[in-house]
DNA sequence: TGCGATTAAATCATGCGCGATATAAATGTA
DNA sequence: TACATTTATATCGCGCATGATTTAATCGCA
């Protein structure tokens, strides 16, 4: 009989990856609630705070998300008056996303979030170096997986 | 003016964590499609293959999911005739989940999946040791975050 | 025994993710 | 200029996730 221990949860990194990702998102919830944002909405704003006036596709490239996810999400951000959606005159297919004044102003509140999140990761027994290694691994995986999944 | 570079995507590990988790789940899709399962459904079966006859709560503890996610998911697995849901006679609040013969049999197909997934992670430039470190970090984070979020 | 508190699961509403498809605009080319 | 092809976004359907609430059963204790 084949050894089935390969099927045990603790012998895979995919499950902890999935679980840690969900639990990490939960850490943001109370902080983002203060500014009435979900985590994916916050990510879109991060992208725009870094570079305003990007197309749906460009935002999607940054976040590895497509229009089927972004379009409804962006409409919600528009309803909250944080962004504007404008079709390009030169090419009516393309929608440019721009921050409103309100959307720009929100950045001032958001700058405190990374610090607060970081403090929640202090009592894990992991060192700064561990986190650096962890992030480097994630970035390598992200880069590889992005290529892998865009092949089709 | 405060330095806003803390808000840049690449300066956080939460975003790559979120993205890598999603992309990793996508790697399972073609493999799981062969046995008509989603990734969360596959995880529930992993738990049951390891220990049959568990309650909804027990499965939830393993996967860090609650009944609001599990109940509908388990009903779908029941529709597929992979599990049975049975209320305990001693305590009618508790639902025990049992694999059907079909559910048990599916394990034989599933044993090949971890191997196939592992092979997709070969060309990342990461060594076996890197993966070991990565998994250890994830497990530490998982354990800490589980406590952190169960506090409330 | 009676009844408030607790517990397990289910239900509800909302917002992602994402495969598949549609729409509409722009492009290439015969 | 016609028309097939490509491109950008949108729409649709479904299955998670999850906070909030509900339902129903059990427990604890006066």
From TrEMBL, chains A, B:
Gene Ontology, cellular component aspect: cytoplasm
Domain (HTH marR-type) ranges: 10-143
Gene3D superfamilies, alphabetized: Winged helix-like DNA-binding domain superfamily/Winged helix DNA-binding domain
UniProt cross-references to Pfam families, sorted A to Z: Staph_reg_Sar_Rot
SMART domains recorded: HTH_MARR
Keyword Ribosomal protein: no
SUPFAM superfamilies: Winged helix' DNA-binding domain
Sample GO molecular function, one term: DNA binding
Coiled-coil region(s): none
Keyword set, alphabetical order: Cytoplasm, DNA-binding, Transcription, Transcription regulation
Record InterPro entries: HTH_MarR-typ, Transc_reg_Sar_Rot_HTH, WH-like_DNA-bd_sf, WH_DNA-bd_sf
Location within or outside the cell: Cytoplasm
Family named by the database record: Belongs to the SarZ family.
Protein name in the entry: HTH-type transcriptional regulator SarZ
Source organism of this protein record: Leeuwenhoekiella aestuarii
């Amino acid at each position: 009989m084949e050894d089935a221990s390969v099927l045990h949860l603790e012998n895979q990194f995919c499950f902890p990856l999935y679980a840690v990702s969900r639990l990490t998102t939960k850490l943001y919830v109370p902080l983002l609630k203060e500014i009435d944002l979900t985590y994916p909405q916050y990510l879109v704003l991060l992208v725009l705070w870094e570079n305003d006036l990007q197309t749906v596709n460009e935002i999607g490239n940054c976040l590895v998300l497509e229009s089927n996810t972004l379009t409804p999400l962006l409409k919600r951000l528009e309803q909250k008056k944080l962004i504007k959606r404008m079709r390009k005159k030169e090419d009516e297919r393309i929608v440019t996303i721009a921050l409103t004044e309100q959307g720009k102003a929100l950045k001032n509140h958001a700058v405190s979030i990374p610090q607060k999140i970081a403090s929640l990761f202090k009592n894990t027994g992991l060192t700064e170096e561990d986190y650096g290694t962890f992030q480097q691994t994630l970035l390598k995986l992200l880069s590889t997986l992005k290529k892998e999944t865009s092949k089709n």
